[in-house]
Design goal:
Elements (H helix, E strand, L loop, with lengths): L8 H4 L2 H14 L3 H11 L7 H9 L3 H19 L2 E11 L25 H14 L3 E6 L8 H13 L1 E2 L2 E2 L2 E5 L5 H9 L5 E2 L7 H7 L8 H5 L1 H7 L5 E4 L7 H19 L5 E3 L20 H14 L4 E4 L5 H10 L3 E3 L30 H10 L3 E3 L3 H4 L4 H9 L3 H19 L3 H15 L5 H15 L8
Parallel strand pairs: 1-2, 1-10, 1-11, 2-5, 6-7, 7-8, 8-9, 9-10
Antiparallel strand pairs: 3-4
The chain binds S-adenosylmethionine (SAM).
The site of S-adenosylmethionine (SAM) has 21 residues, from loops.
């Protein structure tokens, strides 16, 4: 039985409810009166439920799709302005005992090099990331209690936060590791992590079990209920995602929104972020052997509908996507992107030797961080290296209420400008710097409150003089 408040995976992600939702969406996809009603509700910026959003996803009327895109673009502007938060993944270890059939780290893959970074190697990798200008990392690891126990992850986090190099520091460490216990989530919280990210991969239980034939990850309920345990352990920012390409996208889309509704119903706070990874080629993995790949147009529609369904949730896109696709979806609602990513264990400090091949998947966007920053600014976006919300305790429901009321603009916009200024001075090429300085100058005028604008100007001048004691 479907019950969003239940703590049982099969009740809050009810297969029957998803199938009913898809049938309802099919029956109503040409009901333009209903589509208009849903769009009107979406325009109130309070979100849509999984049924309403699924009707929009099924609707293939060109004019209505244009309306969805226009609304997504507007909501994106209202909630996130023109800021794009920057981050990089750091792969700590690819030892893994699971059997995920889409992932090259699966235990039976004998042709990839198995690696785990030592603390000395982490220092080198993080210094290299800081030298690019990164301030925010997402830690990634396979699941292997012997090689990557929680103590190892905690030690890595401690090392990363301790590295101060020139003007650089990693100010927020997000973590994407396998589902774990309340106790271990509590340890992660105490270690000062930002968001705990875990992709569901697929919400379809039957497919999930086929795609994860053995290993701890094969337990659908344990995996699906992970965010509840994370929240019980005190982590109030959690990041959802599905791996598009594994199952029917409409099923996943409904499941994803139901998961968000469940978190809101039980914990009073929805997901902090939603990631939208698509299956990619990797060692031992041919995406063409999976039947459910989605084209770029469908992908864009999903991003736009996530934006209007959960307006207050950040949306993340990785370098799995090309420059062209990223350009399209940033406009429609993506608020965080990675830059200059390596998906190998190590590889930032020195490129990985070809024969070692520890990459998780092929990266499509291979540009440097400087190139990505410049590209964003040329399109009128402000690349933001800010982590202030987390550092100021604006997480969980406190962040959500600021975001829902639209007030987040008052702090995010100036902070984004100040962290961009730091980036330009410390790391940017001459070309990027020139574009950035002009952008900051122009954007100062877009800070509505005069007092905030004045403080921002003062702080920018301090940064110019080398004073860096702000809490971004
Ligand atoms: N081991 C953790 C877990 O099981 O959740 C961490 C996840 S892994 C380092 C990060 C994510 O990469 C996975 O959750 C999966 O969605 C994604 N991934 C795995 N194989 C992929 C592939 N071939 N193409 C694109 N993404 C992939």
């Amino acid at each position: 039985m479907y019950n969003p408040k239940s703590l049982k995976a099969e009740e809050f992600i009810s297969d029957v409810e998803i199938r009913d939702t898809l049938a309802y969406a099919d029956a109503n996809k040409d009901n333009l009166e209903l589509v208009d009603e849903i769009l009107k509700k979406a325009a109130l910026r309070k979100g849509l439920n999984h049924r309403e959003a699924s009707v929009l996803l099924a609707c293939d009327n060109k004019e209505k799709i244009e309306e969805m895109y226009a609304l997504a673009e507007q909501i994106k502007k209202d909630f996130y302005g023109n800021r794009i938060v920057m981050f990089a993944p750091l792969y700590l270890s690819n030892y893994c005992i699971n059997g995920c059939v889409y992932c090259p780290y699966h235990i039976k893959n004998k042709h990839i090099a198995r690696k785990k970074l030592t603390q000395e190697e982490i220092v080198k990798e993080v210094v290299a990331l800081q030298d690019m200008g990164h301030k925010r990392l997402a830690l990634e690891a396979g699941e292997d209690p012997k090689n990557n126990p929680i103590e190892y992850i905690l030690e890595c986090i401690k090392t990363i936060y301790s590295i101060k190099h020139k003007n650089g520091a990693i100010r927020r460490v997000n973590v994407n590791i396998a589902a774990t216990s309340v106790e271990e989530y509590r340890m992660l919280k105490e270690a000062g992590i930002g968001t705990y990210i875990l992709f569901q991969e697929t919400y379809n239980k039957k497919s999930y079990e086929e795609l994860h034939p053995y290993g701890p990850k094969s337990n659908y309920a344990y995996h699906t209920e992970a965010m509840d345990r994370a929240m019980e352990g005190g982590i109030d920012d959690v990041g959802l995602g599905v791996l598009f390409g594994l199952e029917l996208y409409r099923y996943e889309f409904a499941g994803l929104l139901m998961h968000a509704e469940h978190l809101e119903a039980v914990h009073g706070v929805g997901p902090h972020t939603i990631s939208v990874p698509r299956l990619k080629r990797a060692d031992d993995i041919d995406p063409d052997t999976f039947d459910n790949g989605i084209d770029d147009e469908t992908f864009a529609k999903i991003c736009a509908l996530i934006r209007i369904s959960v307006p207050y949730t950040g949306m993340i896109i990785s370098t799995r996507e090309s420059q062209a696709v990223r350009e399209k979806v940033i406009k429609l609602g993506v608020s965080q992107i990675s830059g200059a990513s390596r998906t190998s264990v190590g590889g930032y400090c020195e490129p990985e030797p070809e024969e070692e091949n520890s990459e998780q998947f092929d990266v499509s966007d291979k540009r440097t961080l400087d190139e990505v920053v410049k590209w964003l600014m040329e399109m009128g976006y402000i690349p933001s290296f800010c982590t202030a919300c987390y550092r100021e305790g604006r997480t969980g429901d406190r962040f959500m209420s600021l975001c829902k009321s639209g007030q987040i603009q008052n702090c995010c916009h100036p902070n984004a400008l100040m962290t961009l200024k730091e980036y330009l001075i410390d790391y940017a090429s001459e070309d990027t710097k020139a574009i950035g300085e002009a952008l900051i100058e122009a954007e100062l005028n877009n800070i509505p409150k005069e007092k905030v604008r004045e403080i921002c100007k003062e702080n920018l001048a301090k940064i110019e003089k080398g004073i860096r004691d702000f809490r971004f």
